Amino acid sequence: METITLKSDLKKPVALRIIMVSFLLKVFIAFGLFYAINTGKLEIPNANPKFILYTAIVYVINLIGLIATALNGKLQIYRAIIIFDFIVSIPAKAIIGFIVAGYSFALSFHPKVKAFILSKSKS
What would the pLDDT profile of 26-81 be if each residue is shown by its tens digit? Predict the structure, then answer.
């Protein structure tokens, strides 16, 4: 019996993993916050549950887009999604969204992240 091993030229860099995990945590935080405010378990003045829900849904779409662009080697689109994610956080006044998008954008310029994403475009 023959074993097949799949080898990748580059391992996923730690900075890229930080970006992806941060975006995933942001999705869970947004949906958790929506649930807590909507059920009345958390009272935040001027918090609109609709904005939080819309923001959480767009965070999910952005996460899917980040994964797809990273695997397809589209670095400029990858960065555009991060900038869009920052803009989406504005109506909900999502401070965590601002912070995650800010350091994720900075980490997208890390040489290992750039090399990993660009290596996917060649294959």
Answer: 999 999 999 999 898 888 888 888 888 999 999 999 999 999 999 999 999 999 99
Residue whose entry in the numeric block shows the structure tokens 């869009």: 84
Using CA atoms, how far apart are residues 67 and 59, in angstroms rounded to an integer? 12
CA distances from 29 to 40, 45, 59, 109 (A): 16, 18, 11, 26
Q: What is the value of pTM for the model shown? A: 0.85
Judge whether 73 and 119 are in contact, CB under 8 Å.
yes
Write the CA distances from 28 to 16, 39, 53, 68, 107, integer angstroms.
Answer: 19, 16, 11, 20, 21
**CA-based angle 74:27:35, to the nearest 5?**
160
Q: How far apart are CA 88 and CA 59, in angstroms?
A: 8
Residue 110: DSSP 8-state: S
Cβ neighbour number for residue 31 with a 10 Å cutoff: 17
- 42 DSSP assignment: S
